[in-house]
Specification:
15% strand, two-stranded antiparallel ribbon, elongated
Length: 169
């Protein structure tokens, strides 16, 4: 008779959200222009970030996917950048026209035009299994980590961060 096999717990089973969450959270306000979102995502090498109200409470998430979907539906909405966007040849303006000339404010869509208003979060003590289950159930690549006692956002977890933690366990 074979001995009963004992089920070994995977090495990552005891890891919780607070162990692997990113504590430096890059956020954006709902009134921020999309060019600012693109800059922040690129500068911080992230694919999405929480949208917060004036009190710092999360009210949604904006990601590259949201931007791509928005630009696919509205190609003209993509912020124009680069040298010469507002360049105007001054040699064709009379002196009085030149003095009266003002550059119009750039009209640009804002975060609230594209953000996903749903908040998907886990508690600081959520296990790896709970984190993965939450991400899969909601089809998201990031979850906010909240403190149950205060209800405040204390961290963020990305799917890549979860995979790295499992690989390192």
């Amino acid at each position: 008779m074979k001995p009963a096999t004992t089920c070994k717990r995977p090495p990552w089973a005891d890891i919780t959200a607070k162990d692997i969450m990113e504590r430096r959270i890059v956020t954006v306000s709902p009134t921020s222009p999309l060019s600012e979102v693109e800059r922040l995502l690129t500068e911080h090498r992230i694919s999405g970030m929480p949208v917060t109200d004036s009190g710092g409470r999360p009210i949604g998430v904006v990601s590259y996917r949201d931007l791509l979907d928005h630009y696919a539906d509205n190609p003209e909405a993509r912020p124009r950048r680069g040298p010469g966007f507002f360049r105007l040849s001054t040699e064709h303006l009379a002196d009085e026209d030149f003095e009266a000339f003002t550059v119009p404010e750039e009209s640009e869509d804002t975060v609230e035009d594209v953000m996903t208003p749903a908040i998907v979060d886990v508690g600081v003590d959520a296990t790896m299994k709970e984190i993965c289950r939450t991400m899969a159930k909601n089809s998201v690549h990031r979850v906010l980590v909240t403190d149950a006692a205060t209800g405040k956002m204390v961290g963020i977890l990305s799917s890549l961060g979860v995979l790295a933690a499992i690989a390192d366990a």
